From TrEMBL:
GO terms for cellular component: cytosolic small ribosomal subunit. This is Small ribosomal subunit protein uS17. Keywords: Ribonucleoprotein, Ribosomal protein, RNA-binding, rRNA-binding. It holds the Pfam family Ribosomal_S17. CDD domains: Ribosomal_uS17. One of the primary rRNA binding proteins, it binds specifically to the 5'-end of 16S ribosomal RNA. GO terms for molecular function: rRNA binding; structural constituent of ribosome. Belongs to the universal ribosomal protein uS17 family. GO terms for biological process: translation. The gene is rpsQ.
């Protein structure tokens, strides 16, 4: 079975080898039929501590690494400051 891959923004890098990634998705409201944004935070393993706050990263499902970590950072793209 393929592993899920999500894209999000790093919101915290204070832990060692762990980043918190906020992933946003758009869902349609069942009554008003308007798209609203929903976000969820995932703890992801970052072995090299390479990702910093504001970076856009891709995370992939993996085996449980701790109580809350089930994701790992695949690619880290530097954030566009401008």
């Amino acid at each position: 079975m393929p592993r899920r891959v999500l894209q999000g923004v790093v919101v915290s890098d204070k832990n060692d080898k762990t980043v918190i990634v906020s992933v946003e998705r758009r869902v349609m409201h069942p009554i008003y039929k308007k798209f609203i944004r929903r976000s969820k935070r995932y703890a992801a393993h970052d072995e090299a501590n390479a990702s910093k706050v504001g970076d856009t990263v891709m995370i992939r499902e993996c085996r449980p690494l701790s109580k809350t970590k089930r994701w790992e950072v695949v690619t880290s793209a530097a954030s566009q400051q401008g």
